[in-house]
Amino acid sequence: MRLRCAVLDDYQNIATTVADWGPVQDRVEVVTFTKHFSTEDELVSALADFDFVVTLRERIPFPATLLNRLPRLKLLVASGMRNSVIDYPAAERNSVTVCGTRSSSTPPVELTWALLLGLARGIVTENNALVAGGPWQSTVGADLHGRRLGLLGLGKIGSQVARVGLAFGMDVTAWSQNLTAERATEVGVRLAPSKEELLRSSDFVSLHLVLGERTRGMIGAAELALLKPTAYLINTSRSALVDQGALLAALHEGRIAGAGVDVFDIEPLPAEHPMRTAPRLLATPHLGYVSQDNYRTYYGQAVEDIQAYLAGAPVRRLG
Question: What is the pLDDT of residues 97-133, one digit of tens each?
Fold first, then answer.
């Protein structure tokens, strides 16, 4: 019997064209799904007859309750080498091998700056006015040169964002619970004395932290109140770093100049979700890692993972 592989959340319908699946097509039937399955029952129904599943980033959780209901599943390939929504012990109990792929940090860095610049220069507002025959120049852009960029997190992504800020002539500071002055100096930025001081003094704040118990909800109503009314907040990391209700309130009340957001508490975002209509918000549908090179890597290495599994020597194992 021919093996079957499901590719989930292929929204752009390109998974089978951006990479060469030829090396496994003689043994594996590949089926792509462009529709997101939002419930466990939907997933069980869709995946019951598949041996392999390729899942994109952390769009779909694979808890024990789901893995227990997929007895045919033997290989789960997740793009990236870190995935917080897979229950690895449950996968092992169910004899499911979990493998990953490389993932570039460059696309989320670039998107961070797309959001920041879009907000600072009113790009969407001005473009909409231009297309609709509206006013010629209705906004006054916020300058970057000489302004302070505050980074919460100075890891692989945060450090690259910092270097772009320095190239713009910005005063860049950073803070996280484990960040040292030595590390900040290596990147060419200053260590802020505290999270609170970074928020008070920055003109732009961008989040680049891993979600965990120490970082969940770290930006709430009290922290948002510290921001200048002219400040902008950018979040391309994880939505749960920021209290979503508090952010919506700050945007509606005009207590900050704006926010750029690529991550949400529910994805895909429901049609009636308040984030879709919030004022002063520039939002994108979780595009941080969605780029041509990244997709070539994700799906190309998914093919490699399947080949290696079929050969009895799985590679890039996770868990």
Answer: 999 999 999 999 999 999 999 999 999 999 999 999 9
The domain made up of 3-104+291-310 has a fold known as Rossmann fold (3.40.50)
Q: Can you list the residues of the chain whose pLDDT is less than 70?
A: none
The answer to whether 252 and 223 have CB atoms below 8 angstroms apart is: no
Please list the alpha-helical segments (H only) found in 121-264: 123-132, 156-167, 181-187, 195-201, 221-226, 244-252
Residue from 306, 299, 292, 312 nearest 102 by CA: 299
User: Looking at the whole model, is its pTM more than 0.90?
Assistant: yes
Beta-strand pair 3-7/281-283:
unpaired
Helix (H) or strand (E) holding 121: none
Whether 3-104+291-310 and 106-283 share one fold: the answer is yes
Locate tokens 């803070």: which residue?
175
Class of domain 106-283: alpha beta
Sheet hosting strand 281-283, strand order edge to edge: 190-191, 171-175, 148-152, 204-207, 232-235, 258-261, 281-283
Domain ranges (residues) in the chain: 3-104+291-310, 106-283
What is the C-alpha separation between 147 and 165, in angstroms, rounded? Answer: 10
Helices 123-132 and 106-120, packing angle to 10 deg:
60
Residues with a known catalytic role:
238, 267, 286
Taking CA atoms, 245 is separated from 77, 112, 219, 240, in Å, by: 34, 22, 11, 11
* pLDDT the model gives residue 25: 95
Spatial separation of the C-alpha atoms in residues 67 and 62, rounded to whole Å: 6
Residue 1 is predicted with a pLDDT of: 75
Query: Which pLDDT tens digit goes with each residue over 208-229?
Result: 999 999 999 999 999 999 999 9
Q: Taking the CA of residue 191 as centre, how many other CA atoms within 13 Å lie in the half-sphere pointing to its CB?
A: 12
